[in-house]
């Protein structure tokens, strides 16, 4: 998640290239060629393919079956349910909590325009929160992972056949993890807003648990990567520090509870917890841009003048992402896709685009633009860039390929996903062992089970895509790619 810059002071060729790119991205005519509602439906359906535990009677992806029905038993707790984060069979709590937070935020801000899909989005959210409640049921403990990642990654087998070690990992006062606990508190608090009118008792349970988990995260400070290094690194190692998750958790608790203590916590810790750091980063490991966008709404809506600095940081985020502005710090592929080095680039595309659209909506209601040096960024520019990224995912790209499985005439066929790539239990009732699945992994044939709605890691910096299982950085889907996309597609389905 390194920071990148297209436009550096004194670098005239790079500046000219950025200006040309800005014209390509922002001045092209709006297309009406995508069925955003169909893409929305599929983006939510994807979460059913990632379910762990006992599947409900209304499960729509029928090639999936029950799995991991004894999770938590070795620790004397029930940790069944939840989501597999990507194409493996481990339940990683950090990205699962972030996924839950972003699903909740998508519903909070865009649920009113989801139409018939709002019900499915809420069900996807509850599948996550039900698990997080189990993971935080023991006071002073958060269960943050189920499954030994090394044995899991050494096998290629269906979740329904899983026989790898389902080791349970936890944080407590002796082994802190303020990052994953802070994100879990944020997820529970955000979800409490969604369920406030739908299920008041459940909403209160979520908020009360969020309060306790946040108190634990703040009292026993430390990174879970230090406490559980051998289990979580290099898979979901926190390289950004735990400070942002504490602010993030406090911000969601303030929004959910309106309690003054959280407002005071945010103001008191703004500098200490580095709210202004890396403002063009947002994802499961780095919450800085999201913190500033979320809190800035208070200022724009005239509810608080305590948070003016967060609004300035949010403005800085816009100036750092939009191409053609003096402070652009984000790289784009030749085809116009946001690109950051590392794996699973689409996680940056959907998360940053979600913030662009969300902040644009906040600015619109307040009738304000964003000052960027000698110029300003208009609200339509942010919307157009977010829409351009979504359209790229859906097929407006140099390869004319949709990167969402099941959407459009051409999409990835060989995604890095165990359940999708192996024959289903219905088609092949006999167990497929750990190493027996290798031939399916190495096969050039398309996956037999369509993981509808899955958005893969995406093309490289030159817009090339291999469509091959071994290229996991490009071909693996994740829940935290899809969660912010739910909000984006909801908005575009309603407005285009």
Automatic annotation (TrEMBL):
Domain Glycoside hydrolase family intervals: 36-489
EC category: hydrolase
Catalytic activity: Endohydrolysis of (1->4)-beta-D-glucosidic linkages in cellulose, lichenin and cereal beta-D-glucans
UniProt xrefs under PROSITE patterns: GH9_2, GH9_3
InterPro entries membership: 6-hairpin_glycosidase_sf (IPR008928), 6hp_glycosidase-like_sf (IPR012341), Glyco_hydro_9 (IPR001701), Glyco_hydro_9_Asp/Glu_AS (IPR033126), Glyco_hydro_9_His_AS (IPR018221)
Keyword Signal attributed: yes
Gene Ontology molecular function, alphabetical: cellulase activity
Protein family per UniProt: Belongs to the glycosyl hydrolase 9 (cellulase E) family.
Designated name of the protein: Endoglucanase
